[in-house]
Amino acid sequence: MAPVPLSPVRVGHIDDVQELRNAKPTTIPERFVRDMTERPTLATALSSTSDIPVIDFSKLIKGDKDEVHIEILKLGIACEEWGFFQVINHDIELSLLESIEKLAKEFFMLPLEEKQKYPMIPGTLQGYGQAFVFSEDQKLDWCNMFALGVEPQYIRNPKLWPTKPAKFSETVELYSKEVRALCNNLLKYIAMSLGLRQQAFEEMFGVAVQAIRMNYYPACSRPDLVLGLSPHSDGSALTVLQQGKGSSVGLQILKDNTWVPVQPIPNALVINIGDTIEVLSNGKYKSVEHRAVTHKEKDRLSLVTFYAPSYGIELGPMPEFVDESNPCKYRRYNHGEYSKHYVTSKLQGKKALDFAKIHTKISN
């Protein structure tokens, strides 16, 4: 049985981080100050980002047989060893990336009263505010969010699609359509890297669920005390991240128990494997914990697209990845139930995936 979800807590005006930053507090409010064990160690030199794999999408789509083969091998290594990679030459127009970023920034710069016309509905991930908040004493992330369900149409809440700034909603539509096509294509090559048929995931997923979330991380006078976003893995199949131009380096991934910063490549998109692919591949490809940190002087903007199976789909490890040497690690479950569990739980590393894990008893 799935855990009983906690009742979400509404976050007040005083916890809006942009408003807080504008008020120039002399100390960071206790609600945002992390326990010692959770604080980012910003002063120490973090691992190099040079090893984070880069996939050239144009070689997958337009390359000759050898180029496609090499890029698929690289993709498989990226998914198995990192769970993260950056995609260059992804065919999404630079002007569209710039437009969505500009409009997202304009939305966050609107007066608080305007943004609060689109409040985040408790227990969901749509609207403006703080997500994953379920208790009054829970630590808050140094981040404002705005999220929308995009596909299929029935998950949309039209009241949450803003009228300001102008062209915001139509640009989100266009951007989401392009990112959807990219996800669909990447999943074909990820399937091939696993030795599956190219259409394996597409046929299994049905009408894929897609959502977009915009994260705004204001500068923080004490970035060593707060987190922009708590450590977590994603419940999706794939996640696509666009890091704002000129933003500070904020994304960090947990690699070999070390937090590794992801240095943005201009015009590239960062892709990560979600819990869904981990389950389907029976742990061969793993979703990876990641978090966001803040900067003392620079604001940061990111745009995140989540791409996942239809809520009605039943998921479990594919038979191709289960044998005597690699027994079944996850039970079968309904993806809609997992999604509900995910959005009604605190962000706590990979804890959400316990929902699906088969816990084997150790005999004496």
UniProtKB/TrEMBL annotation:
Listed GO MF terms: L-ascorbic acid binding; metal ion binding; oxidoreductase activity
| Fe2OG dioxygenase domain ranges (all copies) | 207-309
Superkingdom: Eukaryota
Which Gene3D superfamilies does the annotation name?
Answer: B-lactam Antibiotic, Isopenicillin N Synthase, Chain
| Classification via Pfam families | 2OG-FeII_Oxy (PF03171), DIOX_N (PF14226)
Alphabetical keyword list: Iron, Metal-binding, Oxidoreductase, Vitamin C
Family affiliation: Belongs to the iron/ascorbate-dependent oxidoreductase family.
This protein is called: Fe2OG dioxygenase domain-containing protein
Organism the protein comes from: Quercus lobata (Valley oak)
